[in-house]
Amino acid sequence: MRGFAVLICVFGQVLLACGGSAGAGADADATSAEVGISGDVASDLADTGPDADAAFDTVEADAKVDAGPVVTVDGYAIVLQESLLDGAWTFGIAAGLESILSQIGAAAAGTIALPVVLERTEDRLIVRAVDVATGEPVTGEAGLVESWPLERRADGTVRIDFYEPVDRLRVQLTDACVYQLELYTAERTPAFADEMLTWWASELYVPSGCAGFGLPPGLGLHAHFLRRAGADPTFVPRAATPDSPFAFFEDPRPDAPDAPWLARMPRVGAEFTDGSVVYHLSAGFPDGFRETAAQVFAAWNDVIEDATGQRPLALVDGEPGLIPWDPRVRVVQWAPERSRGAVAPFAENPLTGEMFDGDVVLWLGDLTSWVSNYRKFRAAHPDFPLSDLPAFEADAGFAAAHFDTVTLPPAVIRRRALPQLELPDGVLERLLAELPPELDDDAVARRVVADILVHELGHNLGLRHNFSGSTDLAALAPDQTATTVMDYVIAMSLPGPYDRDAVRYGYGDGPLSSAYTICTDEGVWLSPGCARWDLGQPTPFWLDIFDTAAAEAPPDASFDDAAKAAAQTRTGEALIRLRQLGDGAYDLWGRDASVDTFSAMVDRVSCAAPCALHPWFRYAMADALLSTSWRPPGAQKPEDLPAWTEPQRLAIYTALDALLRDPAEPLALRRAVVESLDESALAGAEDLLAALRAALEAIGDPSPDDSSLLAAVIKALGAL
Fold first, then answer.
1. Distance CA 284, CA 49 (A)
2. I want to staple 237 with a disulfide (CB 3.0 to 4.6 A). Which of 352, 410, 500, 644 is the partner?
3. What H or E segment, with its residue span, contains residue 651?
């Protein structure tokens, strides 16, 4: 979860020292232009202050900045003193989210920035990977990331030509499967400013070593970049505290494995001026949401000011032609081509945790019409069942992020799949229920934008998800739905107490409180209180998902057809969650009233007459009650489920015995429960089956159903 990550954001562009405006893209045949290198591109920022009504600040170029060493741009080449290439660097590639390099299946993907050195031969500039564990360059082909033609000149300068690479980049897809750069067309003049060298190209990547995947080639406009290590000398790495209750992105330290570097935004702290971290609104950002964006930035500034005394975040209008994935400028991008979601990529120095770029992409192109149409539909169909929440593809994507890369050389650029926030219809349903009914459609849409943007901006500050924020009632304020905006919750537009203490931990002098529960992406399947889009008390949330799916199953559907329909919903996830919750650990955590999760599960198995629950769903709940372990997605071994108490175990078998002995119950249901007993490791299953066998064999004139059930029981006992 480190490096040039894609959590929820994009890259923007400002050509800071190429004698042209952002996005202008000088022609390759243009005359040489001199540009300067400086440690800090100066800008005078208007004081952001605490006033959220001051929506946008202004940035004025400082014409008096010392240009530093001279660098010459010559078409697609750059000429500079060779000594400027010495030292350690970070290499990365920035790709728009429509590029094949930014996708792994349905999930957004990020590229991990590599620590590198720049070797020079007589005719090549070689970008060589550095072994993080040893700090030494990786020798041979295994360490060669890419290389470019180099010409040495008598005046001590070198000319690096980015028109065509000598050795081409490789990007990981899975294990030994990579995307190999096949075609390369230089697109822009290179730039060297703020200790960062960037060059652009339209590139075609083709899969290599991917037999059986059927992967397409991918074409996109990409930016290669090299950033000097220590380009911002004001950034001071901060190590994580063991057993910290705050989830940050982290960068490993071979010399201190228990104290990795926190991934953090630079230029945040009492020693910096207000407005030191500038974000640009992309072209086309809707006027109706601009003030909302300003208010979100002001809210995070309030939190940071409380921790450091500084208000670092500034929001300005982006220049025309701004390219969202340029790694030199932070962007809040409105992407109308997609809807109902967001993602926040960032780029960081893997050796220090410095997040030198971070952006937010909002895929909310049809948001206002979506809200309007949904309200009209609900008004016309008030009794329509609550929309089921679809399964999140991000779960599979996150598991896929942990590829075994042992077979890949260090020079291959790694990728990762990261969760991206999605907004299914059920979330909007719950949001509308939480908000005042007098709000019009535009006001609801602004609230959705605020809820999403405040979450994504938290990622840019280095904060990871904390999906237990909504169940952390001990720290939960009465007027908030979670302790943190880093949970997936609704009606949470302002940072919570967890967020304030996390910022104090990451940027200030330490948290006022550490008494928080925490659960991030890896724990979503392991903890019942760690769920996306729940509202505090998890049991009613998961029961609602189960009951909604069951209600949509046609009463006359066959057992198999009902099972197939349930597989298209979150029924399986709900059953696991309820089984995890069955020990009652969360039963008293409701805001309004306690629940009895175990009894609710047993009741859905027994299903008192007249029972409207489809038999397959009753069987599925019985199977959940009989389960003692399960294997989470991507896990290598099963995880134990909470043990039942003896009274609970007896209650399960009492309910199942009554169901199995009742001839009025559907035969398919009874046979399915017998199969579950056969496979269950819960103590007492064999005794129940033996007693049932004796009862069935004692029937003098058995019906066909009795005979069929007896055969199933005998088979199960034989297996046991």
1. 26
2. 352
3. helix 646-661
pLDDT value at residue 59: 35
Positive or negative torsion for Cα 614, 616, 622, 627? negative
Residues 181, 168 contacting (CB under 8 angstroms): yes
Residue 693 CA, distance from chain mean position: 51
How many other C-beta atoms are found inside a 10 Å radius of the C-beta of residue 578?
Answer: 24
Tokens matching residue 353: 């945790």
> Among residues 619, 604, 617, which one has the least CA distance to residue 669?
619
Amino acid at 88: A
Confidence of residue 24 (pLDDT cuts 50, 70, 90): very low
Q: How far apart are CA 489 and CA 591, in angstroms?
A: 15
> How does DSSP classify residue 413?
B
Beta strand 250-251 with 218-228 is unpaired
Sheet strand arrangement including 415-418: 103-104, 107-111, 415-418
Short-list 623, 609, 629, CA closest to 671: 623
Q: What is the DSSP string of 287-345?
A: GGGHHHHHHHHHHHHHHHHHHHS---EEEEEPPTT--TT-BTEEEEEE-TTS-SEEE-E
Q: For the CA atoms of 482, 486, 491, 497, what is the dihedral angle to 10 degrees?
A: 50
Residue 25's CB is within 10 A of a number of other CB atoms, namely 17
Instruction: Report yes or no: 489 and 458 within 8 Å, Cβ to Cβ.
Output: no
As a whole number, mean pLDDT of residues 37-58 equals 32
Q: CA 606 to CA 618: how far, in whole Å?
A: 8
Supply 556's token pair.
Answer: 């006359």
Instruction: In whole angstroms, give the CA distance from residue 300 to residue 277.
Output: 12
How does pLDDT run across 367-422, given as a tens digit for each residue?
877 777 767 766 676 665 544 333 333 333 333 333 344 467 888 888 766 556 76
Listed residue (90, 130, 101, 171) closest to 354, CA to CA? 90
Closest CA to 451 of 561, 612, 341, 375: 341
Q: Is the pLDDT of residue 496 over 60?
A: yes
Place of tokens 């189960």: 546
Q: What is the predicted pLDDT for the residue at 398?
A: 31
Rounded to 5°, angle at Cα 163 from 324 and 220: 35
The rounded percent of the chain whose pLDDT value lies above 90 is: 52
pLDDT band of residue 545 (cuts 50, 70, 90) is confident
Q: What is the pTM of this model?
A: 0.80
d(CA 4, CA 346): 5
Q: In the prediction, which pLDDT does 35 show?
A: 28
Closest CA to 396 of 520, 521, 489: 521
